[in-house]
Design brief:
The complex is a heterodimer of chains A (560) and B (553). Chain A contains 19 helices and ten strands. Chain A is of the alpha/beta class and 560 residues long. In chain A, the strands form two sheets. Chain A has a six-stranded mixed sheet with strand order 6-7-8-3-9-10, sandwiched between helices. In chain A, strands 2-1-4-5 form a four-stranded antiparallel sheet. In chain A, helix 5 runs antiparallel to helix 11 (280-302). The radius of gyration of chain A is 34 Å and the shape is elongated. Chain B has a five-stranded parallel sheet, sandwiched between helices. Chain B starts with 5 loop residues before the first helix and ends in a 13-residue tail after the last strand. Classes of the chains: A alpha/beta (560), B alpha/beta (553). At the A-B interface, helix 2, helix 3, helix 4, helix 6 and helix 7 of A face helix 2, helix 3, helix 4, helix 5 and helix 7 of B.
Chain lengths: 560, 553
């Protein structure tokens, strides 16, 4: 819940509209309740056969309320949605701003990066879903509170005892009933959770291995096991049903009690002549109408637990530490040409993760080609991340060596470091846009001639020119309409376009067929000829021409 | 999506019984609402019209208290019954979904990840459908009729107003729904595109950061969201007119009823008790109809999950032959692949394209070819998991020849051993996983199979986690090979069994494969030179269309 409160503070630009929506919502509900109250009075008064003229005000009021309610509701819905979209914008901007400082992060426990597809999709869905907090929860609760206050005051004025009863019943309906429901749901959830977890892992096991099981004729017995678990889970869920209805029962009882109290206290007040008989119907029917409005709160409160856990997950990401600490006093990059000097380097992901790099020393002279070789998990990509200033070292230094001296990159602005050091990863992200847009992000001011040169260097020019839409061809989600080799070449063209003096290739030939990998490896090096190149790979045989080679194993260099 | 999908009744039988309960509770609610209105109008009229004292109202007040207790109990029953029914319905749907997906095999209509999500958390959205939507739907059908039936003897004018305006609500819902369908769909698409753009930006943030473009993204996200808001608000102004009309009909008719009743009371054409009864009941007729629309939001997600489940359940199972009398592959057996071509959805041409070869007992046949050529698909055909679009496979042995398509799938699979590219290991011990191939195998046989697969150092009782966590990829593949060894099947299908293994282990494994081939047919997909060298026969598989994009790469 506290995460929810912190998240609520994020939606700033929708506040004005939201306040307006609350006002309109309050007025709409008041019109509905006013219709009920004036109609009750009108009929009671009419039964005393007064001249029709004496009823005109009430008749006009009834008609006005009847008309106003729909119009006000319309206004409330429009402004509420407007507020919701503004808040969505706030949430997204806050997310981008925060994540920009956090990425690339990875969990210290399982090494998963935040960019893992399902994790990220869920996070984005969480962020987008949070707009419901304002429009589907805060808005109905705020307008209900105002309407509740107004009606309690009105009834209190007619019959204080009935007013107090109404106030208590409204609190029961708005707070107690949802609280009891949520408690029951939590209790039920806790009881079934272990069974669910067991069931889930069995199902995942069965589905992932279903072909194995089918081929070896073991499906039936597995399904029988799962069915057993399902039965246990279902009966546990069904047993919790008894407590599930208590919340709804409380809300219904509260509404009934308020109207009953209206009749009881109202009739008593008429007896003691403190209430005009014509107002008795008002004291009974107004609570009925206001509870009808409060019934919608059950739906609103029902969403709170899910929203709270969404907020919790978003908060968790927001609270990740910055990927790096920017220095207080910035040092400019030295003059080129550039090499890198890595001395005694230690690094790890997360504060309590194990050291991935444990004392690395490498000298990379300007204009050389260095192979960084090792099996997966040996720390090659972590080394690249430190050199790109995406991760702070925990010990040792990475220095940018220029013609007139060296600068520790942690003393530089990280964006400046990345202007010198470029990166082309195995999973280089391709945006769901055009080929041109994917290239331009490397250098927004590039001319068509620049783009052409970059494509030629990556040997994509013939292909792009053969496409009917050329540079404006859409590449699909994650570049799905490109082949693996083309994706890598597009990423290469991007790096060529960025034209940074140092380029790090991170497993550029991963997931590619032998022939394609060999051709790409050759083209990579010719496209970046003259630059300082570092190739991180576990397939050194693809890069026969190199100046230096460093073999990494388990975070340390192997002496060769 | 229909509010009450008949398939829900068909696939989850528990829905039927629950529907009866909900209807019974709906009728009870309607009757209680009616009685409550009667009692309130009688009580108020006694005080206002007859000047009765509160002490004379005790019967009415007691009856009212009873009605309120009754409504409370019904509300409780409704939610509890919904929860219980939802639990059973979900269980019935889950069981069918999992069994059907497993039977569909690798070419299931839905990804396994999707089915896993559906069966564990996705279907939970049905809780809201049963808890919030369905009861309201039934009330929306029952209550208006009950109210109208009571209004009719009380006041003809009010009955007329309600009876005329009430059908306008569903009518307008349908009309307006149809009119705004296109703009709603457009809005939905725009929203989806926007979410997608946001996800794309977030996913690509590390790349944007490397190119110094990440900080500029906040503005871009703000801009696109604002643009979306402006265009959407314009369409919403029209779309929301529908609910404006509905609200106007519902509240204006209540106002009309109240004014008409008031005027006739003045004339003395109506008594106060009837007048009160009419104005209490009139809004009750509209309420459930209004709420059912509002609660659709809660139900939509559950219905969507159910819809997806039905789609999977309606994917027809792959056809299987019926012949259970198999040709004896061990006696001069062979498998003949004749002109086999397979098509793939979303991809032109065929892969593999017109493959022809014969593999006989004692041979190792290696399938090679570029990725995407259809080698794994060809293995699926041999597994009986899918049928080729053209060509066929003939199984020969013991002097008989039977087309694979005529054989009963279960029977055919007793003849197979199979090692996938990324073999799946189940939670349990290494021995459990190897024994999958032959559950009755004794410990020494399991040990021998492990030894033959280059796992002599691996303890058979070592426990492994879900999806083989704790073992390296090479070790996982070797466990799968041990399965194949233990199976002692006459036809062994292997998909890249030595990929990612070092040369020494590869040589060991290939020796084991050669040994298995002495009295079996081995068909193996591989690119590795050592595997190709070990083959008796090499078949190059290709697709009908070479990928033009890869040619120069």
């Amino acid at each position: 819940m506290s995460a929810l409160r912190r998240v609520i503070r994020l939606g700033r630009s929708g506040r004005g509209k939201l306040a307006l929506a609350v006002l309109l919502g309050t007025l709409a509900a008041s019109a509905a309740i006013g219709l009920s109250g004036t109609a009750a009075w009108l009929i009671s008064r009419a039964s005393q056969h007064p001249p029709v003229l004496h009823l005109m005000v009430a008749i006009v009021a009834v008609r006005t309320f009847g008309l106003a309610r729909g119009l006000l509701r319309y206004g409330e819905r429009l402004t509420g949605h407007d507020a919701s979209f503004r808040i969505l914008g706030d949430l997204r901007v806050a997310t981008v701003e925060r994540l920009e400082r956090v990425v690339p992060t990875r969990s210290a426990t399982d090494g998963r990066t935040l960019s893992t597809g399902d994790l990220l999709a869920r996070f984005v869905a969480d962020v987008d879903g949070l707009q419901d907090v304002w429009v589907r929860v805060l808005l109905p609760y705020a307008s209900s509170a105002l309407v509740g206050l107004a009606t309690v005051t009105l009834v209190m004025f007619l019959s204080p005892a009935a007013g107090i009863a109404l106030a208590l019943s409204l609190v029961a309906a708005a707070v107690l009933a949802p609280w009891v429901s949520a408690r029951a749901a939590r209790g039920a959830g806790a009881r079934t959770a272990p069974l669910r977890a067991d069931y889930q892992s069995q199902v995942l096991d069965l589905l992932a291995g279903s072909t194995e099981l089918a081929v070896y004729g073991a499906i039936e017995s597995r399904l029988a096991d799962i069915d057993h678990l399902d039965q246990a889970m279902t009966s546990a869920e069904a047993r919790t049903a008894t407590s599930a209805g208590v919340g709804a029962a409380i809300a219904t009882a509260a509404a009934g009690a308020a109207t009953w109290a209206g009749l009881w206290f109202g009739a008593g007040a008429v007896d003691s002549r403190t209430l005009a008989a014509v107002s008795l119907a008002v004291v009974v029917l107004v609570p009925l109408a206001v509870h009808e409005h409060f019934a919608a709160l059950t739906t609103a409160a029902h969403q709170l637990p899910a929203l709270a856990s969404s907020a919790g997950r978003v908060e968790e990401i927001f609270q990740l530490p910055d990927a790096i600490n920017e220095p207080d006093h910035l040092v400019d990059a030295p003059a080129g040409p550039f090499g890198l000097r890595i001395s005694g380097l230690h690094a790890r992901w997360g504060d309590d993760g194990p050291d991935v790099l444990r004392g690395i020393d490498i000298e990379i002279p300007a204009g050389s080609c260095t192979l960084l070789v090792g099996p997966s998990g040996s720390g090659k990509s972590t080394l690249a991340a430190v050199a790109l200033r995406l991760l702070d070292p925990t010990g040792g230094t990475v220095e940018l060596v220029g013609s007139a001296g060296a600068v520790d990159i942690t003393h530089m602005d990280s964006d400046d470091v990345r202007r010198v050091v470029g990166w082309c990863a195995q999973d280089a992200y391709i945006f769901d846009s055009t080929i041109e847009a994917n290239l331009l992000l490397a250098r927004p001011e590039a001319t068509p001639a620049d783009l052409d040169r970059a494509l030629r260097a990556a040997r994509l020019d013939t292909w792009v020119h053969s496409l009917p839409k050329g540079l404006h061809t859409l590449v699909g989600e994650h570049g799905s309409s490109l082949s693996g080799g083309q994706r890598q070449r597009l990423a290469l063209a991007r790096v060529v376009l960025a034209d940074s003096p140092i380029v790090i290739f991170d497993e550029p030939t991963e997931h590619l067929d032998e022939t394609i990998a060999t051709a790409l490896a050759t083209d990579l090096l010719s496209a970046t000829a003259g630059k300082t190149v570092i190739v991180v790979t576990h397939r050194p045989e693809l890069f026969p021409e190199f100046d230096h080679r460093a073999d990494l194993h388990d975070g340390q260099l192997l002496r060769r | 999506m229909k509010p009450l999908d008949p398939r829900l009744l068909r696939y989850a039988r528990a829905t039927r019984g629950h529907l009866l309960v909900v209807v019974a509770l709906g009728i009870a609610t309607a009757m209680l609402v009616l009685t409550q209105a009667e009692l309130f109008s009688r009580g108020i009229a006694r005080v206002v019209a007859d000047g009765a004292l509160r002490s004379t109202l005790s019967a009415v007040l007691a009856a009212l208290a009873a009605v309120i207790v009754g409504r409370t109990i019904v509300a409780w029953l409704q939610d509890s019954a919904a929860q219980r029914a939802s639990a059973i319905v979900k269980s019935q749907l889950r069981a069918r979904l999992i069994a059907h997906t497993a039977a569909l095999g690798p070419d299931a209509g839905a990804s396994r990840a999707e089915v896993a999500t559906l069966s564990t958390t996705g279907l939970d959205a049905l809780d809201d459908y049963f808890g919030q939507y369905l009861p309201q739907l039934i009330l929306a059908v029952v209550v208006p009729f009950v109210v109208l039936a009571r209004l009719l003897p009380a006041d003809l004018t009010a009955t007329f107003i309600v009876a005329v305006t009430l059908p306008l609500i569903p009518l307008f819902m349908v009309l307006v729904g149809k009119a705004t369908e296109a703009s709603n769909a457009k809005r939905w698409n725009a929203l989806t595109r926007l979410s997608h753009h946001f996800l794309d930006v977030i996913s690509g943030l590390p790349t944007l950061k490397v190119f110094g473009r990440a900080k500029a993204q906040a503005d871009s996200v703000r801009r696109t969201t604002d643009q979306y808001r402006t265009t959407t608000m314009a369409t919403l102004r029209v779309a929301f007119l529908s609910s404006l009309v509905l609200e106007l009909i519902a509240t204006l008719s209540v106002a009309l009823v109240a004014v008409s009743v008031g005027l006739r009371l003045v004339d003395g054409g109506l008594d106060l008790r009837t007048g009160l009864l009419v104005i209490i009941l009139a809004p009750e007729a509209y309420l459930p109809l209004r709420l059912v629309g509002a609660r659709y939001h809660a139900a939509a997600e559950g219905l969507a999950a159910a819809e997806r489940t039905f789609q999977v359940l309606e994917t027809p199972l792959p056809v299987s032959g019926t012949e259970t009398d198999l040709p004896d592959l061990r006696v001069g057996g062979s498998v003949r692949v004749r002109g086999v071509s397979c098509t793939h959805s979303g991809r032109p041409g065929t892969a593999p394209h017109a493959v022809d070869f014969e593999a006989t007992v004692g041979q190792v046949v290696v399938l090679t070819g570029p990725s995407g050529a259809g080698k794994t698909t060809l293995l699926s055909v041999l597994l009986g998991a899918r049928r080729p679009e053209r060509g066929d496979v003939v199984v020969c042995g013991g002097g008989r020849e039977v087309p694979l398509s005529a054989l009963a799938r279960e029977a055919w699979r007793t003849q197979l051993a199979w090692v996938d590219q990324t073999p799946y290991l189940f939670t349990g011990t290494i021995a459990d996983n190897v024994r999958l191939a032959r559950p009755v195998a004794d410990e020494p046989s399991v040990r021998r199979a492990l030894d033959a697969s280059g796992l002599s150092a691996m303890a058979a009782d070592r426990r492994i986690g879900e999806a083989g966590t704790g073992l390296s990829a090479g070790e996982q593949r070797r466990v799968a090979i041990a399965r194949a060894v233990l199976r002692e099947a006459p036809l062994i299908l292997l998909d890249e069994p030595t990929a990612g293994l070092d040369t020494e282990t590869e040589a060991d494994i290939l020796a084991t494969i050669r040994m298995m081939a002495t009295n079996a047919i081995v068909i193996m997909v591989s690119h590795r030179p050592a595997a190709i060298a070990a083959a008796d026969h090499i078949v190059t598989v290709s697709s009908s269309e070479a990928d033009p994009l890869e040619v120069h790469a």
